Amino acid sequence: MRRPLSDVLIEKARYVGSCEHKARAWWGGLPKAYVGPDGQAHRPGRQMTTICPKYTAAERDIATDWVQKALQSGQFRYYEADKDFPKHIWYRDAQHQLWFGFCLNGVLGQYKGWPIEEAERVEIFG
Questions:
Q1: Distances in whole angstroms, Cα of residue 92 to Cα of each of 23, 70, 73, 84
Q2: pTM (2 d.p.)
Q3: Domain boundaries, the chain
Q4: CB-based burial of residue 119 (10 Å sphere; 0-12 exposed, 13-18 middle, 19+ buried)?
Q5: Residues 79, 80, 85, CA angle at the centre, nearest 5°?
Q6: Which H/E stretch holds residue 111?
Q7: What is the full per-residue pLDDT of the chain (126 aa) written as tens digits?
């Protein structure tokens, strides 16, 4: 079910990233993902992961912009246990890349995200 978000909530939303999806140092510190000789990204305790290419503070700010635009546009999916912010969001940037956003903190509006394909967007959001 879609619930509208207030402008105040949307303004609070932020892209904070996640070390689990970084393969090199980023604004948040050291990465936890590892790209093996096979070219596949792995992280401890998991088979594979998607690498987010956002590493700089400027890229973080750009991602925060797409998080807020996705929320403004209603490009999200609420789940029953979600708090103030929806668990899943999506956004298509100016280069036509689709991004999946996952809410890490549903009260503060903190998101991590990574690139996805159209088929994944359709599977998750319809």
A1: 23, 9, 11, 23
A2: 0.85
A3: 7-125
A4: exposed
A5: 55
A6: strand 110-116
A7: 456 789 999 999 999 999 888 888 999 998 888 777 887 776 666 666 778 888 999 999 999 999 999 999 999 998 888 889 999 999 999 999 999 999 999 999 999 998 899 999 999 998
